[in-house]
Design brief:
Order of helices and strands: HHHEEHEEH
Number of helices: 5
Strand order of the largest sheet: 1-2-4-3
Radius of gyration: 18 Å
Shape: globular
Number of strands: 4
Length: about 180
């Protein structure tokens, strides 16, 4: 059977299926790698690859305008991207006076819906490290180098889940390079 012309397919999977599949992926990586650092690195690299590709979908579906500051970019990630792909809206706070460090604070992390706690032998595992890679990869594709790390994690006993984003170039550096 052929599809009618002009019909746009909207492929969505249920959130529960995605969360369970992600849990199975992390469990398999824990079996494949002895060290938590290796699992964290693999999840980050995998997320980076997703982010590099996901930014095109985000820009096409969201029709957002170009962000003019790091603060605008952090707000866009929280209010549009997280809502669009994970169904949650983290709060954003600026962590320094230079205006290049931000925290995304998730009261509820949908990737851990079926996870109560990490095993004691996996204390240094960053279960959701995929998210850091996704953010870093997407930012890099729009010419923004950033360091993205977990600062707090509910799975490790913290009150909230907090992702830190540090933009690596100052805004002035970007302006000078554009004007050359």
């Amino acid at each position: 059977m052929s599809r009618p012309p002009g019909r746009k397919e909207n492929h969505k999977i249920s959130r529960e299926l995605f969360v369970l599949t992600y849990g199975a992926l992390v469990a398999q990586l824990c079996k494949d790698y002895e060290k938590d650092e290796d699992v964290n690195t693999f999840l980050d690299r995998m997320g980076y690859g997703i982010g590099v590709r996901l930014i095109d979908d985000f820009l096409a579906r969201s029709a957002v305008k170009k962000c003019r500051s790091y603060s605008e970019t952090a707000d866009m990630i929280a209010q549009v991207a997280f809502k669009m792909y994970l169904g949650v809206t983290p709060s954003v706070s600026c962590s320094n006076t230079a205006g290049n460090e931000f925290s995304l604070i998730l009261d509820k992390n949908p990737l851990v819906d079926f996870v109560e706690e990490l095993p004691a032998e996996r204390a240094s595992l960053c279960y959701c490290n995929l998210l850091c890679g996704v953010i870093r990869g997407a930012l890099e594709m729009v010419q923004l180098a950033a360091e993205v790390t977990f600062l707090q994690d509910r799975l490790k006993g913290d009150a909230v889940t907090e992702i830190g984003i540090t933009f690596l170039r100052k805004a002035e550096d970007r302006k000078h390079k554009r004007n050359k």
